[in-house]
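Job type: complex structure
Entries:
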Amino acid sequence: METASVPALRIEGLQVSYPGRWFAPRKQAVRAIDLVVGQGETIGFLGPNGAGKSTTIKSILGFVRPDAGRIEVFGQPAGSVAARAAIGYLPEVALYYPYLTPMETLRLYGRLQGIASAPLRRQSLELLERVGLAGKENQRLGTFSKGQQQRLGVAQALLGGPRLLVLDEVSSGIDPLGRRELRDLLRDVAKGGTSIFFSSHELDEVAQLCDRVVLVDRGRVVEERRMDAALRAGIGSALETWFVDRLVAERASGKAA
Amino acid sequence: MRGSHVVGFALAGIALAGASAVARQVRPEVEAVPRAARSRDRVAEAARSTLFGTFRTSMADFLWLKVDRVVHNGVDVRAAAEASHHDDATDADHDDHGHGAEETVVRARESDWRGILGDIERAIQPYEPIGTHVHRDPREALPLFRLMTTANPGFVDGYVTGAYVLSREPDGLDRALEFLREGERNNPRDLRIASAIGTMLTRKARRHDDALPYLVRTIELAVARDKSTLSEDELEAWQDAVRALATGRMLAGDKAFAIRAAKAGLAEFPDDPTCKRVLAELEGK
Amino acid sequence: MVGRKAVVWGTLAQAAVLDSIRRKDMAVAGILSVLLVAGAGLLGRFGVRGLELFLKDASLTVIEILSSVMAVLFSTRQVPEEIARRTALPLLARPIGRGDFLIGKFLGAWALACMALALFGGIVAGMAWALGVGLGQIYIQYLLLRALALGVLCALGIALSCWTTAPAATTLALVLSVGTGTFGRALMLVEGSSEGAARNIARTAWLALPQFNLFDLKEKVAYGWPPVAGWVVWGLAAYAALHCFVLLALANARFQRQAL
């Protein structure tokens, strides 16, 4: 039975590698990641390009099989139907069916989620308004800009009121005004008790939303840190300084081999 | 490419080698196959060998094969492979009503190991035991003859066979002759068409004087060639022309010509019964 | 449980159908079939008798070729396109199994193939009616069995696309759909002329390959034979279901382990 003490997400000893060409050795994408996301927490997952962020997120969804380690979502094995029932996911780069409209797209995902028709329609309209796509419900997605598609992506991730939001590069392609609107939306969602685990290169966003940040590099966790007052006061620049300084120190020490 | 792909290719290669070793057990030679089947098999082989040749030639060959299906009401028949005899095969598999050594492509129940799947195939594909199936009227294949000669004007078999089928129509003789003349225009040096026109004028129209130039031309075309290069169909056409010439001239009252024709015919075809009969009738009187 | 599965499969299938229809795949198929069938009708005017037989034969050949091509194209692109476009990610993030995903895609491809078949069948029936050529009740059986064959072909396309690239899967599926008839007859010849292990190999190969010619009533329709017995249709439905099950199981075995 699930209690409040069951973490929303637990990752232990995660190792993931991808096959090389021909008989070349496998490429290690994640070497050792351990982290916990408590219920109701918002965690920022930071790292340079190629650090293993997307691979970790894909492992949570069951899109890749780990070589070792364990991942649980509210106590359920990652990738299982029960685990995915609790997750709302926004991929890093996702396209949606260009010949469908936003309402048809949300209907498709909602029915797969098991949401009944009438509530699904209501939810879809509400979500589209919340992400700034009101009035475009019946416009084909092939005419949407990248930013508009990303907003739709956020809407589909929120469908069904997930208990854990997993967002990969949530603000990618969205203009500054849109990013602010999204931050407000995510704050509201977090206030409702939803746990959020997201990766982003927008440090302002991470600073304003997160309870904790986890820094990864070359497939390992470098450091975890609570978002204290000092970091928040400096907003992006303080966090950026910490981010860069910490990475440089890590690489210089040779620990991340 | 991963190691598993290499293993996959290796397995595929082994499978292909095994399949070809099994296939070599099928003996391709067929003995004592009747003319129709030999012709069909030769055309089937030609159709395959022209797979990468011109579309028109392939189209004509394909339609020629279709004619056979039309005549057999859709039942697919082929030359019997001598090695396709099982211990449990019966006469139901093979001809006993004038088809020579032929068999249905769909296997008969008595020699079919496939159980219900075999029954399904016999229910789905047009099938009747070779000895009891019915023939459709060959005139139903006339559009195919028109198509194949339009696709390939050099397809002489189409003109000759099509004309004979057409001549069975009421008032079809003139159209058959017109069809053959079109074939002659497209194939002026082919002796089979000249022979077909001459024999049709002789036997069906009884126009012996009109037939004479065609029959003479057939023989001229035949003797101008090395006999060893003539196909079976060409030899047969030559022999038909010789017979038609001998009997036609005899019926037209030109005895001397008939005797010369019969003697010349026996020189090329020593056992020809028609030429012998003509000589016996004319020289015996 | 069964109801939930049906909703998942039906939703995925519906999305595939809607996507394809809005791409105007059906419109292209319809125009092509009208042109080809009309061409067959024009050629027939040279005949004296036998026009009926020739028209039926040519028209049904058009149906066979076009429906096979459409089924292969619809099925072989379902999974690879979803993965390449990354539309598979938000789908599979939902609480559905990968096997359910495959079944939904298979049903969508099959539904599209059957719609194309209905379109071609209607065009041929219309042309036959206009020319006064009777197709007979066996024509309905022909379309039904053709639909079953297209189901097997779609399952084959899905399976091949999970194990290899989409273009390779398309080529292989087309070759198999055209070649199994000829290859099946060759296997029967080999079986008839061999002994022992070779005979068993030939028999096994014949049983393993889906024999599409078993579903082909074209010749009987063309030559005006009467309809086949009901047990034949049921038997073929069971045969098709078995092959679909095996092919989709093979697809699932690969897809379960595939990284997205």
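Summary: The mean pLDDT of chain C is 89. Residues 2-255 of chain C form one domain.
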